[in-house]
């Protein structure tokens, strides 16, 4: 994995500003893993993908996470601060975020008279989804895509014929096999002492940070180019410390 440079940030923002989250995630991964093929990156499980993005976030912006949330009990507006270690990043399926580790291709389980073989959802699965699909349709699509085969009493059956208890077991086993795919943070309201779980969307959080940083960087380039006549490439090649010193010299 390599760090994001200033020019990377502007390129990422330009390529993915109107893209769906799954495509934005792939854009970030392509920059972080320049030697990996798009096919391999697309086939990462959701947990693998998010584990890698968390590591990229740590290397780029640090280990502390900040955000705002409303208490569901008293509706108090809260500023939350977490550490990436709270998300069990060290249990990710990556060795220091540097190489993509192989993952088991297929899993299977028996329940009652059903034998179910399945795989884990991937970023490629999410990229095929329409933004117009309802959450229930998304869930159904993911389960359908991940089912390799279903047998009842040794006879092949359709996924739609699975009873609810077997479907629930399938969802639970997928979550257990790919724990980083469903990241949550424990929050507590200091006003009313209410506690609850917050779902952490890695892609959205990181993309927002990249967007904010890149937008600020564009403004710095504009100001310095206007003041000194420098080329964009030369300004981006400077360290953040040097750019800030020049901005201070012109009163920014």
Protein architecture, described:
- This protein is α+β, with helices and mostly antiparallel strands.
- It has a domain at 107-181.
- The protein is built from ten helices and ten strands.
- It has helices at 6-16, 21-32, 38-42, 46-61, 123-127, 135-146, 164-177, 202-228, 232-237, 240-249, and strands at residues 64-70, 77-83, 94-95, 99-100, 107-111, 114-118, 147-152, 155-156, 184-188, 195-199.
- A four-stranded antiparallel beta sheet has the order 5-6-7-8.
- Strand 1 (64-70) and strand 2 form a beta hairpin.
- The longest helix is centred in the last third of the chain and has 27 residues, at 202-228.
- The radius of gyration is 22 Å and the shape is globular.
- The two termini are 34 Å apart.
Overview features:
252 residues; alpha+beta; four-stranded antiparallel beta sheet; two-stranded antiparallel ribbon; 47% helix
Helix content bin: 40-55%
Q: SS-based structural class?
A: alpha+beta
Question: Which stretches are low in confidence, meaning pLDDT under 50 for 5 or more residues running?
Answer: 89-98
Supply Rg.
Answer: 22 Å
Overall body shape: globular
Which H/E pattern describes the elements? Answer: HHHHEEEEEEHHEEHEEHHH
| Overall pLDDT score | 86
Oligomer state of the chains in this structure:
single chain
Number of helical segments?
10
Q: Major β-sheet, in short?
A: 4 strands, antiparallel
The main sheet orders its strands as 5-6-7-8
What proportion strand? Answer: 15-25%
């Amino acid at each position: 994995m390599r760090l994001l440079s200033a020019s990377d940030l502007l390129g990422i923002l330009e390529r993915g500003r109107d893209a769906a989250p799954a495509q934005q995630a792939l854009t970030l991964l392509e920059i972080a893993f320049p030697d990996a093929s798009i096919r391999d990156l697309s086939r990462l499980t959701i947990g693998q993908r998010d584990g890698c993005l968390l590591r990229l976030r740590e290397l780029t912006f640090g280990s502390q996470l900040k955000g705002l949330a409303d208490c569901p009990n008293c509706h108090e507006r809260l500023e939350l601060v977490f550490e990436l270690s709270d998300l069990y990043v060290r249990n990710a399926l990556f060795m220091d975020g540097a190489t993509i580790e192989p993952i088991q291709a297929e899993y299977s389980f028996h329940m009652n008279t059903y034998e179910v073989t399945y795989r884990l959802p991937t970023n490629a699965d999410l990229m095929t989804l329409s933004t117009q699909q309802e959450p229930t349709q998304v869930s159904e699509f993911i389960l359908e895509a991940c089912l390799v085969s279903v047998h009842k009493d040794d006879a092949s059956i359709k996924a739609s014929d699975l009873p609810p208890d077997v479907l629930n077991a399938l969802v639970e086993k997928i979550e257990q096999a790919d724990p980083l795919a469903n990241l949550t943070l424990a929050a507590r309201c200091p006003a009313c002492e209410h506690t609850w779980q917050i779902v952490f969307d890695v892609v959205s959080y990181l993309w927002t940070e990249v967007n904010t940083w890149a937008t600020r960087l564009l403004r710095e380039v504009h100001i310095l180019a206007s003041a000194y006549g420098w080329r964009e490439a030369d300004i981006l090649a400077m360290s953040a410390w040097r750019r800030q010193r020049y901005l201070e010299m012109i009163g920014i």
